[in-house]
Amino acid sequence: SGWYKGYVIKNKERKVSKRVFIPEYLTWSSSCLLIYFIITSAEMPLVKEVTTTLREWGSIWKQLYVSSKKERFSQVQRLMWDLMEWRSQLLSGTLPSDEFKELKQKVTSKIDYGNKILELDVVVRDADGNILDPERASVISLFRAHEDATAKITERIKEEQSNVQLDHSGVSARIQSSPTHSLYVFVRNFVCRIGEDSELFMSLYDPIKQTNISENYLVRWGDKGLPKDIEMLNSLKVVFTDLGNKDLGREKIYLICQIVRVGRMDLKDTNHKKCTMGLRRPFGVAVMDISDIIKGKTECLWVTMKALVGDIVQIRKEYPHLVDRSTVVARKLGFPEIIMPGDIRNDIYLTLHSGDFDKYNKTTQKNVEVIMLVCDEEGKVNSICLGAGDRPVNEYRSVIYYQIKQPRWMETFKVAIPLEEMPRIHLRFMFRHRSSQECKFSSFSVSCSHEVHGALAVVGDGLQDEKRNSVELLNNILEVLSRNDVGDTFQHIQDIVSSLLRTINRTVITMGREHALISRVVACMTAILSQMDDRHYSRYIETFSGTTDLVDFLMETFLLFKDLIGKHVYPSDWVTMIMVQNRVFLQAINTYADTMNHKFLDNNSFEVQLWNNYFHLAVAFITQESLQLQHFSPTKRSKILAKYGDMRRLIGFAIRDMWYKLGKNKICFIPGMVGPILEMTLIPEEELRRATIPIFFDMMQCEHNHSGNFRKFENEIILKLDHEVEGGGGDERYMDMRAHFVTLVTGLLERLLDYRTVMSDDSRNNRMSCTVNLLNFYKDINREGMYIRYLYKLRDLHLDGENYTEAAYTLLLHSKLLKWSEEQCTLQLDFQTPQSQRQLKESLYDTIISYFDKGKVIFLIICSFSFLAFCPFVYFIYKFLLQNQQAKFYESIMKILRPKPDYFAVGYYGCGFPQFLRNKVFIHRGKEYERREDFQSQLMSQFPSAVRLNITTMPGDDIKNSNMQYIQCFTVQPVLEIPPRLRNKPVPDQIINFYKSNYVQRFQYSRPVRRGKVDPDNEFSMWIERTTFITAYKLPGILRWFETTVSPLENAIETMGQTNEKILTMINQYQCDDALPINPLSMLLNGIVDPAVMGGFAKYEKAFFTEEYMHEHHEDRDKLMRLKDLIAWQIPLLGRGISLHGKRVTDDLRPFHERMEECFKQLKKKVEKEYGVRELPDTDERRSTRPRSMLRSVRQSICSLAGSECGTPTKTHPER
Predict the structure, then answer these.
(1) Which of the ends of the chain has fewer CB neighbours closer than 10 A, N or C?
(2) 772 and 766 in contact (C-beta within 8 Å)?
(3) Within 458-532, where are the H helices?
(4) Cβ pair 580, 525 in contact under 8 A
(5) Looking at residue 733, what is its pLDDT?
(6) Which residues pair with 1027 in a beta bridge?
């Protein structure tokens, strides 16, 4: 993310040192304080761009070398050398402003050219060469910038190619060496029998770009076949100047001559007195390809035309016989490539493009004449030049097309106004209908909105030019409306959306992808969508007359988006345009998805095909090539993420949410959506996979609920997975996630099958257990909807059995998922009505309180709701309850005698039980006055084939692995846990007694055991074995029973104690019997001291003896000390065992013993350093003089779990 600059302050000496840090090598310590801030580069943006470009080109340059593309390698090398040289000049900061601008143009041109030949993305820039920010630029300006950039790069490539080709003669060599050129044209004659005056407009024209290069040269020709100005006979000369090398590099250049007849409307009109005269009517055009002439390759023999080198001053000096003072100068439209000192131009060129004057209900159209005047506050100004060589006039009159509703003039003329006069000048346009015989002008007005709508009506079926004009007109309007300085544009955009959006959508649908205007129309559509906000969308949706019309619009829009995403209308290197389009489409898709949720989700109004189109569009969006970041270079990937983020995540999460909202309608999309969802999950994006892979769970469960199996899903996913992976999809990480998916599916299926089995069972307890297993499973995988669904199934089971307390706790879990906000709840249940989260939470609390009341555990209300005192809502709603009723509740506890419930440990052993009960122990909370015999009798009635075990210890593996059912039941005592808020306070005994049987999670069972010789006269010779059980949750809770659990730490303590017990037992056996074989002892000792095992506690050190674990588990401090103690005691035990082994070992096993001793020394050194030294007394009772009671005490320290409270069952320190 960058470098850091900061100060390290050392505590001892308070020395301060200033440094620059790399984040990857920055570590935090309590001994120093780092004060930092991020360093940002002060380089200018252009230098940053050059640096980034050189890095990107550098990697490609190396690949070119490896692939032996020598020519391209050398070409890129030269480009990089140029950029590095220019970068040094930019960094010097010594360039004058004009040289800096020139260098900037060279740098950006070189970068764009290099990106093109390396097939990298187009960089779009503004007029100053700066990279356009898509956040600030409008869609239309971005599109036009892409067009301009592509045209400039293409022209640059042609120049490179023409530099090699333009070497045909000395003339062309001279042309190439000069920066400025001119074209001399001498008009000898004009032979055409018109019969009326005419105007000849000659100009240079680029047929490829369809644009004029120069201004017009105007010759007025008389009806007698001679120039109107007879003095100009044989002197009609013009020089088209300001041409540069880029102009010479154009693929084609034409000299065109447009002929306008000035006179009657129709030449057939013979009544000159009644005819309207002076009308400008189109007559003809002449075209000549002068590409070779202007490039100096040849000279014209029949028409006097010659390419001249230099500007007007130079050619007047060098060609005085051709260019004299009477020669007209026609300047280029635009500035020359090199502007000479003193060459000042303030010309305005106007082009009358086209118009739409459709009268719609009329059969004949108008003959439109456009008149333009240049006016100041005093009136008309003579500043209009219809062409070079003509005198200025005060008005311009257009050519008249006879009864054409959409005339296209394309007439260009110049307005020459001094710079200081421009603020006082405005242009006035008038539109008139002209007829063949008229006594007066018939003028009319044209409104802007009529112009726009009328023009766009022909986009779909009009002529090519009319389409281009219409689209450009709308694009111009949209670009103006996107600006921040034009006031409120809401209604303008709304008008465009309401009247044109669907028309443009349908135009794109009907247009072929090869159509010349397709990219412009799509850009227009994207621009409209980008300027719409939620209000525009909402109002537009309301304009549809009925449901059918709205569905049709949404479906055609989804199909259109999917088609445009699958096959972009823009070149592949227009990445900025493509990403902006994706961002706009994503916003539209999400907005239309909200409309679907509101209008087409209910069963009565559900539209299968519409939802199907949505899902296929969304998957097409997420899988499109332009969003697959893993295929891009690091530079490109970073740029996209910085500007647009990963849009795949956004649409992926939307797909997930939309799927889960389908409810019962999901079956309509199985197996059809299996393939698309699979394709989406194959995208190597971790968060996306986590969000979408669980959809497969839902599909399986949905089909299973519908048909009792999931064969369709199974067949489809096998088929599609084979196809996708064979096509290159998937990776090892995906395989791991799929394996995790299979594990989850297996767990889900186990629980579902158990649930299905017990649903027909008479045992309500079994149904409750399976329901809790399912809701916990859904909670673990973040499936809130399914979790809530099974919460209410459990609630209903509790109410049927009048377990009101447990029903209250069940609803309390739902209430914890809700916020105190007005946000609307998602409808998760069939009986749920639309309401806010706050309203639902209030309602749930009222119900919970009533359940607690019916369950006769009023005090639990106070305990359960005490945490709500910090909620603002409860301060107002439950203030009365907490302040006025709490004393009453305490009083009822003090005076009313309440029976304490008994707790029973129940073990279900044997493979005859279902999976959720098999070989597990549960603690049950008995009902009021319920005895163990009654509880056990009811329990056995649920399993009539079960055998009752009369032992309280854990049975052996023979019983656990048998195919029968064994039930163990005995009473356990709850362990009091006083809440922290009541500790060290004077609390009445009645309240303490309440906590002795409520809010409990630990339970104990004690039984007498006999060890050694028992003295019948000494009661203290009897040992007590105590077993402690810990339940997964406190009782009472959402069930009347919970499974007992063993924490990983407690399991480690138990395992370590059993290992020590095993070593000690074997030592005693070998001390008592010299005839025992040595092999069992060898295997036991070597298995522990082997370096690969390291005493078997290495994994415990990594798991429990870390600062992180101790910080997060303060309550385990005593248990950690006990585990360390057991590890320390293992060393003297191993030492005693190895000593005993050395006395018994045979000569052939002596090397084995010596290696074991060496390993033990290393282990002993490590353990005693970490956990201290323990000394073992003489445990050989045949030779020991120590009292047996002392030996037994040591044995308990070495092997027992004293101080720990583990699961089922554990032995504790004896009580005497």
Answers:
(1) N
(2) no
(3) 464-481, 490-510, 518-530
(4) no
(5) 67
(6) 1005
* Among 648, 747, 655, 771, residue whose Cα is nearest residue 697: 747
Q: For residue 578, give the H/E element and its range.
A: helix 575-599
Q: Which pLDDT band, with edges at 50, 70 and 90, does 711 fall under?
A: confident
Work out the average pLDDT over 287-293: 86
Strand order in the sheet with 32-38: 16-21, 4-10, 32-38
Give the side-chain half-sphere CA count within 13 A for 162.
18
Alpha-helical runs (H) found in 816-931:
837-854, 858-865, 872-877, 879-884, 886-895
Nearest to 906 by CA among 771, 1054, 1041, 1026: 1041
> Encoding tokens for residue 918?
């098999």
As a whole number of angstroms, the distance between CA 337 and CA 348 comes to 19
- b/e per residue, 648-675, with b = 16+ CB within 10 A? bebbbebbbebbbbbeebbeebbbebbb
Tokens of 182: 């001119």
Q: How far is CA 109 from the centre of its chain?
A: 34
Q: What is the pLDDT of residues 1127-1178, one digit of tens each?
A: 999 999 999 999 999 988 888 889 899 999 998 998 999 999 999 998 877 6
* C-alpha dihedral sign at 837, 842, 847, 849: positive
Query: Bridge-partner residues for 1035, per DSSP?
Result: 1000
Q: Please tell me the predicted confidence (pLDDT) of residue 859.
A: 58
Using alpha carbons only, give the angle 474, 477, 480 rounded to the nearest 5 degrees. 150
Paired tokens of 689? 């996979």
Q: Are 906 and 938 in contact (CB under 8 A)?
A: no
> Cβ atoms within 10 A of the Cβ of 382, count?
12
Q: Provide the sign of the torsion angle of the four alpha carbons 587, 592, 595, 597, taken in this order.
A: negative
3-state secondary structure of 755: helix
Q: Compute the distance between CA of residue 816 and CA of residue 844 in angstroms, rounded to an integer.
A: 10
Whether 877 shows a pLDDT value over 60: the answer reads: no
For range 745-772, the mean pLDDT: 77
Residue 206 parent element (H or E)? strand 197-206
Identify whether the C-beta of residue 702 lies closer than 8 Å to the C-beta of residue 667: yes
8-state DSSP, 221: E
Residue 894, both tokens? 């003090």
Cα–Cα distance between 423 and 798 in angstroms, integer?
86
* Cβ neighbours of residue 40 closer than 8 Å, sequence gap 6 or more: 2
Of 40-49, 742-751, 1011-1020, 1110-1119, give the lowest mean pLDDT range: 1011-1020
pLDDT digits (tens, 9 = 90+) for 112-134: 899 998 989 988 888 888 888 88
**Tokens matching residue 984:** 């060290």
pTM over 0.70: no
Q: Which residue has the tokens 């999950």?
A: 681
Mean residue pLDDT across the chain: 80
State the DSSP H helix or E strand holding residue 940, giving kind and residue range, or none if neither: helix 932-942
Cα–Cα distance for residue pair 182/184, rounded to 1 Å: 7
Cβ-defined contacts of 129-136 (< 8 Å, 24+)? 129/46, 129/104, 129/105, 130/45, 130/46, 131/45, 131/49, 132/576, 134/576, 134/579, 134/580, 134/643, 135/643
pLDDT value, residue 879: 46
pLDDT at 419: 76
Q: Tokens at residue 77, please?
A: 């090398």
Q: How far is CA 916 from CA 568, 770, 925, 1033, 1212, in A?
A: 55, 7, 19, 17, 29
Q: What's the pLDDT tens digit per position in 406-425?
A: 888 888 888 888 777 777 88
Q: Is the pLDDT of residue 28 over 70?
A: no
Count the helices and strands in the chain (H runs, E runs): 41, 27
